[in-house]
């Protein structure tokens, strides 16, 4: 399927920070892949992407193998993102790259770990998981001999930096990346980035229902308090009257995802036509988000999100686990600050001598940890913590 005129075209990319035209022997090394395909593949092959398999999505270090983690969530976001991008004539490879990479900056234990890092770095520019994604991919990953980072294209970095819209007050890690490779933080991102953002919402809104019920923290009766969920549930039960209710929950999740995806496709097409958008520059200059839900679906999605916060994310069991996890990260920050030799040699040997660089270096180490590794490090230093 040919790309739409408002899609990002790899041959028209603004390029990479470091020129990669030829190898040290002078051989052209581009191969059959275009620049956005190469970005996607670099992300998939990165250490930080592999670590997502042991990072919290909703449940801290879940015991069951059937619960989602950051890695499986990112794969599900990529599937939804590619579906929408294909229907709209957008660049699927760029969309997929953004979906796969969007959570790489999350520290161990999800938002609990982020809260601990934000508190510790309050006097040093703070901590933001989205900005940490950029820092990780542009600086901390080091698979190449002549530069740090994955050397991703401008379009990929721009999409990761501002997929939720223009950034007025950039966190320090994002401001650092912007100084090195200007990302035009005051403009809107490409449609590929906008679709990656809404695909993330669709994935976690609905898949967290599945995990919440599986964990016994949500019930279908609670969900039916939402009128639009009740409407879909009644129709599903009518279509499958002889099937036990627990077998119908995946059908509800699929149905909700399908409704949201179709709404985004239709709404985005309408906004493109109404705004007269014919190029990616028009998208960036539109002044509003073009890719997203209709007003009606956005209202329903906000209600669902509010329900999930009230009944799942802020469930007493979740809050208790999150507080224990936050203390693990806080303890490790204090321990490594007091005695950097507790970190592995390759991290302690590179510790800067002055603040804020010293604290940021420790935060980089901690943010890259998986849940399991953080718990093991804490156990080695402080002894076992309560489960």
TrEMBL record:
Keyword Electron transport: no
Region Disordered, residue ranges: 14-37
Statement: the UniProt record of this protein carries the keyword Nucleotidyltransferase: no
Key words, A-Z: Hydrolase
Record-level Gene Ontology MF annotations: dGTPase activity
InterPro entries for the chain: dGTPase, dGTPase-like, dNTPase_2, HD/PDEase_dom, HD_domain, PHydrolase_assoc_dom
A GO biological process held by the record: dGTP catabolic process
Stored Pfam families: HD, HD_assoc
Domain named HD: residues: 70-205
Family under the similarity heading: Belongs to the dGTPase family. Type 2 subfamily.
The protein's name: Deoxyguanosinetriphosphate triphosphohydrolase-like protein
Source species of the chain: Parasphingorhabdus marina DSM 22363
